[in-house]
Amino acid sequence: MSIGDTPSSSAGRHRGRASKRRLLLVAAGLSAVAVLATAALTAAAGGPGSWFGSDPAAPAQAQGPATPDPSASASTTPSPAASPSAQPVGPCARVAGPKPVVKVTEVKLSAAVTGYGREGDTEPLPMAIAERPAGGSWLAWLGTNGRVHLGRLDCDDKLIGTPTSFVGIDLQDVHADRTGGVVLLTRKGDCGGGKLCGGSSSPCKTMYMVRFDDTGRQVWERQVTNLGGGRTGYDDGARFVWWYQHHGRLATDGKNYAAYFGVAITVRNGSCVDIHEGDRMQVVDANGRLVSGHRDSFEVGCSHSWTTRIVWDPRTSHYAMVCATDNACRIAQPDPYRTVAAGTCDGSLFGGDLVLAPSRGYWTAWSQGGGVRLERFTTGKSNLTIKTAARSSHPHLVSYGTGRMLLAWASGSAIAAQVYDAATGKTVGAKFTANVRDHDYQAFKAYSDGSAAYPAAGGGKSIRIARVLPLA
Fold first, then answer.
1. Rounded CA gap, 24 and 307, in Å?
2. What is the pLDDT of residues 26-49, one digit of tens each?
3. Is pTM beyond 0.90 here?
4. Contact between 237 and 266 (Cβ < 8 Å)
């Protein structure tokens, strides 16, 4: 989207603006114009010599309490009875129960956490969490000191050891593996001396993956935008982070990491440049090098783009992605465009998260007009739509044990949640509540023991971890 454009379909949350002049690079499968996660399930295990082993990847709100939806197409499946021989699962030995139980733990920190603000899609994300395969979690949070902090949590979600930190002005996501993990964040960049065709200048930023080892020490860093080497933000061909929507998510195939995020796109227009907004996906290998020509990566996919979500699918050996876009006003797969669900550009179209469906295909959550839907699809058009009872603009979706998924959304000052069967889309048991504050763009993360965790605002120097314990 260019700087002289008018407001787009996500007005109020997505601050993009619909372009009067689109940049269409059809031959390259790119569509440039003026975003969680991503969401991910269990990633493939790294083979001999790989830098890490099995990695349960991550996937992933709303106004007011949920109310029944008479048009809901999902029927209710009773919660399965608890197994009398239920055994502890995983390195944290969590035991599954007959219904979801939420455990909230206050994590006291030595460094202050950036507040939620207005929760807009151009504003900083405060925190993110990811499972350590050896047990516990990595918790990342954006400080108030220009740094992204990283601490290790034990199996009780308590902070252990001394947190580390990296230079960063906006946290995007964190993902963990057997020997450490990767954090996705933004840093300062250089706009250069290029002339804008209109509008006001804004600081130019870069997007980085930062690799850390299992002590939290930095191993390498890699820019996944393209500034540097003589290219600045206001030069033709730049891909960078501007004030435009830029949130992103991480996923891994067990050897490489992928980042899918919103990006600013600089295009020459005579003697000046226009800045558009779209999204970008880049893959980085175990040594911190960009994987040139990766079959799933692209310079620009959806445009305008927001709520970019990504998951690695070991069954197809591909990364799968969805975006919300005002290109035909829809939830779509990028590069090339394939419509998953048709929407309307009325300012209320938002994507949720993306998870694997059993056997094949995916589920994604999205919202239009405050009504939350679940869509099951393989490639392109949804083959099953579930109209849920949730009322929200920003739903979260995460895998939740074997064959289930968890839909969550803001409900007053708390989070409401409902379990769904991942094969049929039918509800499992009753709705329940997590007594923590939601954030529009943060994510629930799945754990290999069948639990799911969400980092939420505590005080100025604390974070509350809401863990939904496994379901039998």
1. 21
2. 233 333 333 333 333 333 333 322
3. no
4. yes
